[in-house]
Amino acid sequence: MKFNQFINSLIKSGKKLSDGAGSSPFIALSPVDNADPDGSYAKALSFSLENSSINNIALTGPYGSGKSSIISLNFA
Questions:
Q1: 74 with 38: CB under 8 angstroms?
Q2: How far apart are CA 4 and CA 42, in angstroms?
Q3: pLDDT of the chain, 76 residues: tens digit per residue
Q4: How far is it, in rounded angstroms, from Cα 34 to Cα 69?
């Protein structure tokens, strides 16, 4: 409960978590525009989606590896 109170107090005060140099120690893991510079992943997904004999497609990788970026860039 104390953590929630701390976060709520930061939000109410307008303070930001940072390293003091004006930048955050965190990076956003939201989709990026440069995830597939040579288009190889998009080509593989397009082939899979256009091939009627392929019934299942899996995008695998560790957390933050760019799976949602590939989908967002090419198929959203």
A1: no
A2: 41
A3: 687 777 777 677 765 555 555 567 777 778 888 888 898 888 888 899 899 999 998 888 888 788 888 777 655 4
A4: 8
